[in-house]
Design brief:
Blueprint lengths: L2 H6 L7 E3 L2 E3 L3 E3 L15 H9 L5 E8 L16 H16 L4 E6 L16 E2 L8 E4 L2 E4 L4 E2 L2 H20 L4 E6 L4 H6 L14 H4 L1 H14 L4 E5 L13 H12 L6 E5 L21 H6 L6 E4 L4 H9 L5 E4 L1 H5 L3 H6 L29
Parallel strand pairs: 3-4, 3-14, 4-5, 5-10, 6-9, 10-11, 11-12, 12-13, 13-14
Antiparallel strand pairs: 1-2, 7-8
Length: 373
């Protein structure tokens, strides 16, 4: 048997059922913020071409999509909280489906990683009042981030309803399901980790209190659209956006154990992550690179997706071993719209251009060639 035909028989190219969706392969397109949405955060024709080109993925997870005005933290990112945004997404989901693909919407609240420029001068909100540090790029330029305002308990209930409403809107827009963004230092992660959560009520302090918000959001979304259309993403070793936790293994083990109760479409866990061009080594108390997925495989009973910096061979190997059921590729999918074909046939890969990752026009977005072009 030659190399190409041997590759095609690998488990990663076999179908799998996630929740209510049958996927053609176990190769997913990771959520990738590209900042090319139109005015009023409405998806446009450029986004349609981009996603349609990558419909060969077993599952596309959309770029992070804000659930409300309060959730905004970056320029030109799409939303899913207005009728106009719903209508903007419909041609995208329709085109992916016509190509035989499946697509989930990633539901996003930036929390403290936002800036007052996005909120008419009002403070961004979070679990506590600890600044993430660093800067935010707003429509007025680069700004230093500030200490956020803690959400009240009444406001927490309103935000949970925003997640449920966004999930309902995602169904109206034609998505096959949703992935709750609980990773990378955004609002849900800010509740989970004690480095950002200094509350003294039932949402702060002990681990069972800090994971309460994540579980309540999950339950609300499940109740709205069904458990089989609901997934969640976590970054147990994450330090992006100023994140830290004093006992990450214990914290995330408790959360993942509780998530077993929901029979979700999948759990998406990230290996250690850093922005493009930057590297880091998590401190000793954190799970190291390529240790996260095996650790939580022993705890989580459902479908497990992994992500962050996997090469093609690493992705094939981790699915073949059974450590993960699905691998999500980010930059590789960004640069190779036909990534599944290239993987299956052992074809050469395009190289990504990091300078065009965020914002801009069609360059570095929809002009990466298919193999042979």
């Amino acid at each position: 048997m030659n190399i190409k035909s041997d590759l095609a028989q690998k488990k990663i190219f076999s179908s799998i059922t996630v929740g209510e969706s049958q996927l053609t392969s176990r190769v997913a397109m990771a959520p990738l913020t590209r900042q090319r949405a139109g005015e009023r955060l409405v998806p446009n024709w450029l986004n349609k071409v981009y996603y349609e080109q990558r419909s060969e993925a077993g599952l596309i997870i959309s770029e992070a999509t804000v659930i409300s005005k309060q959730a905004v933290g970056y320029t030109s990112t799409p939303g899913i909280f207005t009728d106009e945004q719903i209508e903007g997404w419909k041609p995208i989901t329709d085109s992916v489906h016509k190509k035989g693909g499946k697509i989930y919407c990633q539901l996003w609240h930036c929390g403290r990683s936002s800036h007052p420029d996005f909120h008419q001068g009002e403070l961004p909100v979070s679990s506590g009042d600890i600044s993430p540090g660093g800067t935010a790029k707003t429509y007025n330029g680069t700004r230093s981030r500030v200490a956020p305002r803690p959400l009240t308990k009444d406001e927490i209930r309103m935000v949970i309803e925003d997640y449920a409403h966004a999930a309902r809107n995602s169904m109206k827009a034609g998505f096959d399901g949703v992935e709750i963004h609980g990773a990378n230092g955004y609002l849900i992660d800010q509740f989970i980790c004690d480095g950002s959560n200094n509350r003294e009520d039932e949402y702060g302090g002990a681990i069972e209190n800090r994971i309460k918000f994540a579980l309540e959001v999950t339950e609300a979304v499940c109740n709205e659209i069904g458990n089989g259309k609901t997934a969640i993403r976590l970054s147990p070793s994450g330090i992006f956006n100023g994140m830290s936790d004093s006992t990450p293994k214990e914290t995330f083990s408790s959360l993942v154990s509780r998530l077993n109760e929901y029979d979700l479409s999948y759990l998406h866990v990230m290996e250690p992550y850093s922005p493009p061009g930057r590297d880091f080594s998590p401190s000793e108390r954190y799970l190291q690179d390529r240790e996260v997925t095996p650790y939580f495989r022993k705890i989580y009973k459902g479908t497990l997706m992994t992500n962050s910096g996997f090469s093609v061979q690493e992705g094939i190997d981790i699915v073949e071993s059974g450590v993960a059921d699905i691998v999500a590729f980010g930059k590789l999918f960004l640069a190779n719209p036909d990534l599944v074909k290239r993987m299956r046939e052992d074809l050469s890969l395009n190289t990504w251009d990091a300078s065009t990752f965020y914002g801009g026009d069609d360059r570095g977005y929809i002009d990466y060639p298919f193999y042979g072009e």
